[in-house]
Every structure is written in C-alpha cells, then in structure tokens.
C-alpha cells in the first residue's frame, strides 16, 4: 500500500496525502510587498484536497528584505494578500502554511532600509542580493546587539499574528539556507561570546525564543521549523554539523511542533548536485532519531518511487517536491496516477510575470502547457 498517499496528521490538520509543496522563492509580490493576486492564483492552482502548501518566505520587516519581489507580512496592509492565498487554497480543501524569514547578512542596503545587514557576527560573505536595479553583492554587515535580537523575535511574532489574521493555518520559521536564524545556529558565522554564541544551546537560543514567541499565539502545533543541516547556500558552514543539528532537533522536540522541515544535502541552493540525486536522503534520516514529530524531507525528489522509498524506510513522514510543483499544478494527482510530468522552466524561477507561473495546465491539457 502506498504510504505517499496515506493520511497523516500535521498539527491540528488531517492531511489526505504526504506530497508537500515547499516554499519556493518566486518573487511575484506587488511593489509594496503585498502578496499579489497572481500569487494567490498560483497557489490555488497547486492546492489539493487534504494537501499541504507552504508559501514562499514572507519578510518579517523591512530590514529582513533581500530579494525584490518577495512578499511581506511586516505591515497590517499585507494581511489582505495572504488572505487571498488562504481563501484560494482552502477553496480546494488544502492546508496552507506561511514561511516567515529574516534574510540577515544576505541583504543589501537598497533592500533593507539603508542599514548594514544583520548577522550574529561580522563575517564577510560573498553572495548576491536581488535589488530593484538587479543582482548586487551583499552589503557589509553588522553584529546584532541583544536589543536587535529581541526586536527580530518581536518581528517574527508580529508577522505570525498577521498570517493567522489572514486565516493562514500555520507558520514555518525559516532557519535554513544561511539566513539570519541559520547563521546564528552555525559556528562558521556565529563567533559570539555572549548568551547567543558558543555552545549549541546558546547559538540556538534565538530560534527557540522565536518558537516560544510564535507558539504563544495559536499553539505550538501550528508552528514548523525549516533546517538545512548540510547547507552550503550563502556560504554557511559549521565545524560539527552533526552535533549542532542533533542538539537543535532535541531542543525543538519538546514543543510539539507541527513538523520539522529538513533540506537534504543532495541539493545546493536551487541547483541539484546531480551526482548524488540517486542517493537516499540522509539528513532527515539522521534527525529522525532526535525529533519525534512529523518530518518533511525536501531536496531532489523527482518521482513517487523515490518518495515512497523514503517514507517506507521511516526516514521522513512527508515529501516536498519543489521545482516539479512549479510546472505541474496537479502534481499529487500525476504522482498518484503515474502520469508524465511537465518540465519546469528555470528561467522563470526568480521573478517575472505570469509566464511559466500561472499558465501551466493540469494533465488534461498538458500538451498545451509551457513544456
């Protein structure tokens, strides 16, 4: 019997299958960072009865911004855009989660209100931010003060409140890919000697305090966390990632979170490590021993067979398909029926109009889609 298409409980929600649409940086928000009507249509198209959709990163503040076109939840005016998304997904029987993020040291002064990007420590970064005038090297950063950290946690909580006000079902805290919370977790970027640096428990403190702040709103079972234990995106690194992320999972476990969302090492940024795609996931399997709640595995899944193997081994409980969801709005049904998948269009991943965003068709009209 297929486990991929068996029900599972995630937080307070009963899902009918385990195919998850993960957060994908598509950058189609309105100029004021409100989630656009086009975004609402995109997510509605990909919603399925009893399926889980995680909306791309919403910025929790102006300071958190690093990608022009990313949506925000840092003003009450942004609630309306997310309510459109929630209404669309709910109209098809789906469950929708909003990912919340602070991009930290990966930002540029054109994007974040003109201030040096925030990080746990001053560590030079060779990366690019997407500004209104194009991709540019990130700006020199500054070390977060304790007051900065408290403000960031407050901003996460306020953004989560706005998501819930928009009738979004839950929130995912983005602590992966070298962004602010991840840069605190890993000792390659966290050189602090205060209570937010040093031992893993200290480096994880900002994440745990963020979890506690958001969990106080509607319960911890409406909160998920995303981690990238083997991540290299944005030059993130740790001297002992196995020890670090084992302890992070152990610290998160008592809260009864909705899920832990784990990015596998067989992908790097938005590109496959092609030589390792056929290897089984390892990060989710490792954290399985330290986190008792549902685990979503993400990274390099291309078909139902690979997903099914991961589930049958017990390495994860749900499987996220990223790029294949971009071009197959009916992906769960195609996987269920063994139908061919429409090829995605990488040129449309990072911003644009409706082309290769809302014009992919479900199977009945796949021959007319943007292949």
Automatic annotation (TrEMBL):
InterPro entries (UniProt xref): Aldolase_TIM (IPR013785), OxRdtase_FMN_N (IPR001155), Oye-like (IPR045247)
Top-level lineage group: Bacteria
NADH:flavin oxidoreductase/NADH oxidase N-terminal domain boundaries: 3-341
Name listed for the protein in its UniProt record: Alkene reductase
Gene Ontology MF terms: FMN binding; oxidoreductase activity, acting on the CH-CH group of donors, NAD or NADP as acceptor
Gene Ontology annotations for the cellular component aspect, listed alphabetically: cytosol
Record's keyword terms, sorted: Oxidoreductase
Keyword Endoplasmic reticulum appears in the UniProt entry: no
Cofactor(s) required, per the database record: FMN
Family under the similarity heading: Belongs to the NADH:flavin oxidoreductase/NADH oxidase family.
Keyword Oxidoreductase part of the UniProt annotation: yes
């Amino acid at each position: 019997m297929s486990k991929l298409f068996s029900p599972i409980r995630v937080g307070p929600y009963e899902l009918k299958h385990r195919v998850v649409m993960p957060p994908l940086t598509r950058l189609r928000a309105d100029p004021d960072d409100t989630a656009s009507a086009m975004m609402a249509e995109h997510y509605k198209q990909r919603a399925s009865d009893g399926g889980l959709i995680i909306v791309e990163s919403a910025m929790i503040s102006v300071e958190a911004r690093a990608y022009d076109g990313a949506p925000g939840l840092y003003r009450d005016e942004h609630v309306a855009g997310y309510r459109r998304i929630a209404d669309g997904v709910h109209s098809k029987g789906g469950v929708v989660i909003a990912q919340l993020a602070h991009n930290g040291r990966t930002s540029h002064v054109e994007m974040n209100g003109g201030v040096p990007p925030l990080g746990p420590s001053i560590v030079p970064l060779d990366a690019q931010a997407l500004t209104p005038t194009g991709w540019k090297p990130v700006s020199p950063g500054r070390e977060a003060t304790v007051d900065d950290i408290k403000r960031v946690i407050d901003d996460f909580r306020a953004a989560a409140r706005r998501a819930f006000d928009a009738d979004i079902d839950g929130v995912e805290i983005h602590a992966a890919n070298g962004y602010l919370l991840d840069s605190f977790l890993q000792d390659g970027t966290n050189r602090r000697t205060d209570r937010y640096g040093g031992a893993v428990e200290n480096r994880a403190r900002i994440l745990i305090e963020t979890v506690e702040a958001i969990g106080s709103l509607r319960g911890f079972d409406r909160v998920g966390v995303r981690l990238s234990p083997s991540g290299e995106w944005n030059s993130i690194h740790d001297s002992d990632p196995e020890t670090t992320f084992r302890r992070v999972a152990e610290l998160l476990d008592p809260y009864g979170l909705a899920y832990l969302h784990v990015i596998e090492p067989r992908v790097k940024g938005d590109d496959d490590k092609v030589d390792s795609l056929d290897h089984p996931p390892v990060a989710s399997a490792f954290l399985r021993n330290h986190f008792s709640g549902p685990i979503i595995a993400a990274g390099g899944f291309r078909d139902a067979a690979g997903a099914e193997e991961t589930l049958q081994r017990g390495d994860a409980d749900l499987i996220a398909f990223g790029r294949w969801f971009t071009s197959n709005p009916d992906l769960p049904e195609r996987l269920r029926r063994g139908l061919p998948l429409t090829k995605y269009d990488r040129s449309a991943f990072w911003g644009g109009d409706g082309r290769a965003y809302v014009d992919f068709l479900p199977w009945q009209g796949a021959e007319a889609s943007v292949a």
